[in-house]
From TrEMBL:
It comes from the Bacteria. Pfam families: CbiA. Gene3D superfamilies: P-loop containing nucleotide triphosphate hydrolases (3.40.50.300). Residues 4-203 form the CobQ/CobB/MinD/ParA nucleotide binding domain. SUPFAM superfamilies: P-loop containing nucleoside triphosphate hydrolases. InterPro entries: CobQ/CobB/MinD/ParA_Nub-bd_dom, CooC, P-loop_NTPase, ParA/MinD_ATPase. This is P-loop NTPase.
Length: 249
């Protein structure tokens, strides 16, 4: 199953992606985590791994990818054949405890150009990726909804929308829900950073509460590890429940 994890900036996409990847791996599943956010430098640390080399380098780097795209009037196919997780070249992933991490690419320097190259490679990659029943690909998306505009979400099977206790995040839950429906993808919400004070308000404000899969509490352990960029060690019940839910559908 290919899952896109999305939501507003800072809502907890990387945290949920990492915890979910670890929980699925503990159940013997083979996991590919795709870091698809060019400006996030935290996901690999939450997984306790090295940041892998930019996958765009495999196609000659960002500038080459852009040239190929422009010369072909945006029809260039970077993947002539379908790929499996095993086809990802060794230089382009990190591996730990049954979780493989790859990265579309990061912004390394000022003035180095837009992220279209990374977006195009990832759109085609996820569409060309073939998984077995025991494999999961979790895509940690860039914040917001540009990835829907790029068409990356067309290649996944399910959309997981992370919502934190803020007006912007709850508003975005409607837009992302509608966008998911428009491309006929099932979507589920994870209410995150939930406290006993905000839980009811979040349920009431979310666009479609029947789509709430789980509520993940505001957890001092997660916050502490997040603060110092440490590998996440928590095993919250909400993530265990989310894992069982995803395995059941
Ligand atoms: N349930 C939680 N309890 C406590 N802290 C949390 C929880 N979920 C996330 N956080 C903290 O919130 C911050 C943002 O989380 P995270 O980096 O996962 O968000 P993100 O959506 O991936 O961010 P970005 O949009 O920048 O990629 C981190 O410091 C993280 O430790």
């Amino acid at each position: 199953m290919k899952i896109a994890v999305c939501g507003k900036g800072g809502c907890g996409k990387s945290t949920v992606t990492s915890l979910l990847a670890k929980a699925l791996a503990r159940r013997g599943k083979e996991i590919l985590v795709i870091d698809s956010d060019e400006s996030n430098y935290g996901l690999h640390r939450q997984l306790g791994m090295k940041l892998p080399r930019d996958f765009t380098d495999y196609f000659g780097g960002k500038q080459n990818v852009l040239n190929d795209m422009m010369l072909s009037k945006f029809t260039h196919q970077f993947f002539e054949e379908t790929w499996t997780i095993d086809d990802i070249p060794e230089d382009y992933y990190s591996l730990k405890d049954g979780v493989k991490l790859m990265s579309s690419g990061k912004i390394h320097q000022a003035n180095e150009g837009c992220s279209c190259a990374m977006g195009t490679v990832m759109t085609q990659f996820i569409q060309n990726l073939r998984l077995t029943e025991d494999q999961f690909a979790l895509m940690d998306m860039e914040a917001g909804i540009e990835h829907f505009g790029r068409g990356i979400d067309n290649g996944v099977d399910l959309i997981l929308i992370i919502i934190d206790p803020s007006y912007e995040s709850l508003q975005l839950s409607k837009k992302i829900g509608e966008l998911s429906e428009s491309i006929r993808k099932p979507f589920y919400y994870v209410l995150n950073k939930v406290t006993k004070e905000n839980q009811e308000m979040m349920y009431e404000a979310v666009w479609n509460s029947s789509r709430v899969a789980v509520s993940l509490s505001a957890d001092p352990g997660i916050m502490g590890e997040g603060l110092i960029g440490k590998e996440l060690s928590e095993k919250p019940d909400a993530i265990e429940n989310l894992t069982e839910f995803l395995l059941s559908i």
